[in-house]
UniProtKB/TrEMBL annotation:
<keyword id="KW-0539">Nucleus</keyword>
<protein>
    <recommendedName>
        <fullName>Matrin-type domain-containing protein</fullName>
    </recommendedName>
</protein>
<keyword id="KW-0479">Metal-binding</keyword>
<dbReference type="InterPro" id="IPR003604">
    <property type="entry name" value="Matrin/U1-like-C_Znf_C2H2"/>
</dbReference>
<dbReference type="Pfam" id="PF12874">
    <property type="entry name" value="zf-met"/>
</dbReference>
<comment type="similarity">
    <text>Belongs to the SF3A2 family.</text>
</comment>
<dbReference type="InterPro" id="IPR052092">
    <property type="entry name" value="SF3A2"/>
</dbReference>
<keyword id="KW-0863">Zinc-finger</keyword>
<dbReference type="GO" id="GO:0071004">
    <property type="term" value="C:U2-type prespliceosome"/>
</dbReference>
<dbReference type="InterPro" id="IPR036236">
    <property type="entry name" value="Znf_C2H2_sf"/>
</dbReference>
<dbReference type="GO" id="GO:0071013">
    <property type="term" value="C:catalytic step 2 spliceosome"/>
</dbReference>
<dbReference type="GO" id="GO:0005686">
    <property type="term" value="C:U2 snRNP"/>
</dbReference>
<dbReference type="InterPro" id="IPR031781">
    <property type="entry name" value="SF3A2_dom"/>
</dbReference>
<feature type="region of interest" description="Disordered">
    <location>
        <begin position="1"/>
        <end position="25"/>
    </location>
</feature>
<dbReference type="GO" id="GO:0000245">
    <property type="term" value="P:spliceosomal complex assembly"/>
</dbReference>
<dbReference type="GO" id="GO:0003676">
    <property type="term" value="F:nucleic acid binding"/>
</dbReference>
<dbReference type="Pfam" id="PF16835">
    <property type="entry name" value="SF3A2"/>
</dbReference>
């Protein structure tokens, strides 16, 4: 940055930059350095949306160009979130089950599962006759499920998946049961009623059917198609 024409400076000499100007200069140097050294296409948190702008999926920030995004990745907020994510991943790894060999140290438990495709399913819209709350009933047929496996489920934010453009209006319900592929259903991103009788699951070992039903806390419910996304 050229400071030779600043008020009070001698011709040919550089003036003293203010703190804000120094910060701007530092950010610009970091941005140029990042552009030269970082392959942005390999950044797992970088995403270009349908409007042509760029998003950081880790910090949920919006940027007008790649340079702005790269400058953000060098900032305190992004670095702090990276450290938190690394600490969480390390904790998850430490909590993973391990097995010990006879002449070896701890070995990570590993299962080689051959996937056999998606299971059959049925989705039904339901309404509570008393509260008039709208909800969904999922029934998944798993005739070839492994003997020692119980179906599992969880809700996933739209920003955790990489198949579709993330949106705040929807979330995903994942149901997993080996050796079947995990299936996901795109539902409205409304608060789920966790009170007694409003959310339940049932695994029928005889018919090999997994059922899950929940109600939204918000009584309003728009018609939409519920279908697997993967």
């Amino acid at each position: 940055m050229d400071f030779q024409n600043r008020v009070g400076s001698k011709t040919g000499g550089g003036g003293v930059a203010s703190a804000s100007e120094s910060n701007v200069n530092r950010r610009e140097r970091l941005r140029k350095l990042a552009l030269e050294t970082i392959d942005i296409s390999k950044d797992p948190y970088f995403m270009k949306n349908h409007l042509g702008s760029y998003e950081c999926k880790l910090c949920l920030t919006l940027h007008t160009n790649e340079g702005s995004y790269l400058a953000h990745t060098q900032g305190k907020k992004h670095q702090t979130n990276l450290a938190r994510r690394a600490a969480r991943d390390a904790q998850d790894a430490s909590n993973a089950p391990t097995v010990t060999g006879p002449n070896q140290g701890p070995l990570q438990a590993r299962r080689n599962i051959i996937k056999i495709g998606r299971p059959g399913y049925k989705v039904t819209k339901v309404r509570d006759p008393v509260t008039r709350q709208m909800g969904l009933l999922f029934q998944v047929q798993l005739p070839q499920i492994a003997n020692d496996v119980t179906p599992r489920h969880r809700f996933m934010s739209a920003y955790e998946q990489k198949i579709e453009e993330p949106t705040k209006t929807h979330q995903y319900l994942l149901i997993a049961a080996e050796p079947y592929e995990t299936i996901s259903f795109k539902v409205q991103s409304k608060e789920i009623d966790q009170s007694q009788g409003k959310f339940w699951t049932y695994w029928d070992k005889d018919s090999k059917q997994f059922s899950l039903q929940f109600f939204f806390k918000n009584p309003s419910f728009e018609n939409e198609n519920i279908a697997p996304t993967n």
